[in-house]
Design goal:
Elements: H1 9-57, H2 59-62, E1 63-64, E2 69-70, H3 73-82, E3 87-91, E4 97-100, H4 113-120, E5 125-130, E6 136-146, E7 149-159, H5 162-208, H6 227-276, H7 281-312, E8 321-324, H8 325-340, E9 346-351, E10 358-361, H9 363-379, E11 386-394, E12 397-404, H10 426-431, H11 438-448, E13 452-458, E14 462-470
Parallel strand pairs: 9-11
Antiparallel strand pairs: 1-2, 3-4, 3-7, 5-6, 6-7, 8-10, 11-12, 12-14, 13-14
The structure holds adenosine-5'-diphosphate.
Amino acid sequence: MSVHPQDSIRFRLTFWYTLTLGVILAVSGLFSYYYFSFSLRQQVDVELREIARQIDRHQDEIFDPVADSVNCQPMHNLVNQFNWDAFIQLRSVKFHAACASENLLGEELQFGGVARQQVRWLNQHLESVEKSAGRSQRLLTHPVIAEGKLVGVAQVAICFGASEETINQLRLIYLLVGPFAVIWLGVGCWFLADRLITPVIDITDAAHGINADNLDKRLPTRGCQDELERMVISLNRMLERLEDQFRRVRQFSGDASHELRTPLTILRGETEVAQRWAKTPEEFRDILISNVEEIDRMERIIENLLTLSKSEVGELPLDIKEFSLSDLIQGLYLQSKILGEPKQIQVDFDYQAEKEILIKGDELRLRQMFLNLISNGVKYTDEEGSLMIRLSLDGDMAQVEIADSGIGMESHHLPRIFDRFYRVDKARNRMDGGTGLGLSIVRWIGEAHGGSVTVTSVPGKGSTFTVRLPVAGPDTLTPPS
Ligand code: ADP
């Protein structure tokens, strides 16, 4: 599946990085430009107002509103005294240009309509005036007032000078360098994104090549410790689990068909024998009895398989109620005595709890679980052996032990006996009519109740199965994974 260029992570990374950095660059440029211009203007304005204030203080000597005249000498004295390099222009009350500082070189400071109007209203007027070669001036037009009346006008101007040039250069640099910086940034991001994305593409390609036939393949690791490596390790672990599950499913379906095929083959063989050789009704009867046994066996296998697969998809909900575990085990003890009778197995019951044990659980399922363990105990114990059922309470866990003096198992079989169709001795097991599914059902019921089933065994001496169940019911514990 190909990715549209606009949808690729590489494109989106580059686009958003470049856009973000471009915006940051533009905003910071604009901010610093306006901030510096503003503070420069502020500085100049303070200076202009100070000069106007000094002229105000000497207004009596300078302005004569009645004669509409201005005395220039005190102004020149002030210029010399304070060493002002500002341009100064004084106007009479009727706005005639009167005195000008020498640095004006005969030029007149601008006195536009707005400034005139403001002065008439006795307001100051501040403006920036563009001069030649991109230079500009700050010009203050100040009404000189005595007893609430206008007596003259003082105009003061200062060139922005070197600071303004620096600011203008800064603006130029931003305008010229900014777009280049953004373009370079975009190109850099594009290659960087490529380096980041290449391993993802490699992983995707490798993942594409993995299917049910080659689940043993793994995604390539790069030997570094970044997030991608962690993702690859997690995916590889997931593949391991999948491979294991696939292997189990394959083995299970192989085992299941084999288990069903065996009784079918026997059925077929015996029926053919009956067809060819059986003559007397007794011979037919014997073969039919054997056939019914095989059909029974198939029925049990299918029933057990159905139970297990329904339990896996959660279609066998437990009917949880409080009941007496003591009564249940007592009843099973009596039943096991009957089960053990044909082999003269001595069955004992060891009740170690001080009071009746009440437990929350599915009584029928728990009965099925204990019965499976008891019938295994009887099945795998030779004549005149013994079977012990022990019930005890360990904190908030009820414990049931079923110990037999039977054939036992080698320790390497123990981790696998709860697997479906696993048998220690296949030949013997068939003769005993086992399906190899009993312990799988036992484990499911135990774990579904939030409990556990464990086993210890010594070959030739016997086996002990221990079931531990929370008396408060399955919801009180986290079910095992
Ligand atoms: P089956 O129906 O064949 O008994 P189970 O799942 O109940 O299947 O048991 C699996 C295998 O575990 C049996 O085939 C048997 O070899 C072994 N096993 C189970 N219980 C006992 C026991 N009490 N003593 C010895 N072996 C046992």
